[in-house]
Specification:
The chain is mainly beta. It is about 15% helix and about 35% strand.
Length: about 250
């Protein structure tokens, strides 16, 4: 009998196993990450950097691959790979010109890796947390305002490393398809769970009252006001089968 060889295990399986180890006991809001978590997180990040669409048996799509249909198909679809109490893993596929609106991940860690195409990701954080709120943060009511900061806006392709979010950093983001269809693999830890205070909330960036900014100023972090809104009517997410290697945990 041949010895177990990690090279014979799919990279998707290895990513799932490493995610399970990494997020078994992750740091919560305001907690400093320990050495073991940082080491495991680095291993997971390295594996996510390696994975490609072919490893998931996903064929990159072109704008012409989807003829007009009635009713209109969802702008975004999701392929479920696996989910445990510690994390969820799947693939989001965005049609040309589609966006996943600005949304949050209360008390959650995340890692996003582009499989094909290009995305633009704008990352935000709230600057104030309600006094006495639990570690996940109390959700605001629709229409309420939150003082926030735009941390960064960057474009990612399959040749880039993963985009990282944590409970305290880059926790809100908007994802836009750039120059055609795109897809990305997504890990969230722990998964969304409204019953445990981890519901998804959507936000709108209010117009900057200070007017025009120079190019140098645009490169800096910028304070903004975010208003919580209902799920935008132009965004909804459908499902489709995951064609890649099976994951067993």
């Amino acid at each position: 009998m041949m010895p177990c060889d990690s090279n014979m295990t799919s990279i998707v399986q290895r990513i799932a196993r490493q995610a399970l180890i990494t997020f078994r006991n992750p740091p919560r809001v305001g907690e400093e990450a320990g050495k073991a978590f940082l080491e495991n997180h680095s291993k997971l990040r390295s594996l996510m950097t390696e994975v490609r669409a072919a490893d998931l048996q996903i064929v990159p799509r072109r704008a012409a691959d989807s003829p007009p249909a009635v009713p209109a198909p969802p702008p975004v679809t999701y392929m479920h790979i696996c989910e445990t109490d510690q994390f969820s893993m799947g693939v989001f596929l965005l049609k040309s010109g589609a966006s996943i609106p600005l949304h949050d991940h209360p008390g959650m860690h995340g890692m996003l890796k582009v499989m094909y195409g290009k995305v633009r990701i704008s990352c935000f954080d709230r600057l104030q947390r309600p006094a006495g709120s639990p570690q996940t943060g109390q959700p605001a009511q629709p229409g309420s305002l939150r003082r926030s900061v735009l941390r960064s806006t960057a474009e990612y392709t399959e040749d880039c490393g993963p985009c990282i979010l944590s409970p305290d950093r880059d926790n809100l983001h908007q994802i836009d398809a750039v120059d055609g269809p795109t897809a990305f693999m997504d890990i969230l830890a722990p998964p969304y769970d409204p019953d445990d205070g981890r519901d998804c909330h959507y936000y709108q960036v209010l117009t900057d009252a200070e007017g025009e900014h120079t190019e140098q100023e645009k490169e800096k972090e910028k304070e903004v006001w975010l208003m919580e809104i209902s799920q935008p009517p132009h965004f909804w997410c459908g499902g489709e089968p995951y064609p890649g290697p099976e994951v067993n945990l």
